[in-house]
């Protein structure tokens, strides 16, 4: 996958269904294949990391838990 810059990463997060108030919402789970969300742990779903996105996206060593960047 092409390495995305900070602006591109932020744009992806802002469109993500588990993005909430600058956080990757740890009260939600996302299916990376379908973008479906869940409020509880389910097979094939990944829990939000609770990271502050404006901070996480700035470090190019960090990656989206759902493989979006
Ligand atoms: S890090 Fe990934 S899963 Fe979390 S809000 Fe951003 S795009 Fe969504």
Question: How would you portray this structure in words?
Answer:
With 69 residues, this protein is of the alpha+beta class. It has one domain. 20% of the residues lie in helices and 14% in strands. β1 and β2 form a beta hairpin. The longest helix is centred in the N-terminal third of the chain and has 10 residues. It is globular, with a radius of gyration of 11 Å. The protein binds iron/sulfur cluster (SF4). The site of iron/sulfur cluster has 13 residues, from α1.
Mean pLDDT: 96
How does the major sheet shape up? 3 strands, antiparallel
| Approximate shape | globular
Name every ligand kind in the structure.
iron/sulfur cluster
Number of strands: 5
Give the topology string: H per helix, E per strand. Answer: HEEEEEH
| Tally of contiguous helical segments | 2
- Spans with pLDDT under 50 lasting ≥5 residues? none
Question: What is the fold's blueprint, element by element?
Answer:
Layout: H1 6-15, E1 19-20, E2 23-24, E3 29-30, E4 37-38, E5 46-47, H2 53-56
Antiparallel strand pairs: 1-2, 3-4, 3-5
Bound molecules: iron/sulfur cluster.
Keywords for this entry:
69 residues, alpha+beta, two-stranded antiparallel sheet, 2 helices, 5 strands, 14% strand, binds iron/sulfur cluster
Give a nutshell description of this structure.
The protein is α+β, with helices and mostly antiparallel strands and 69 residues long.
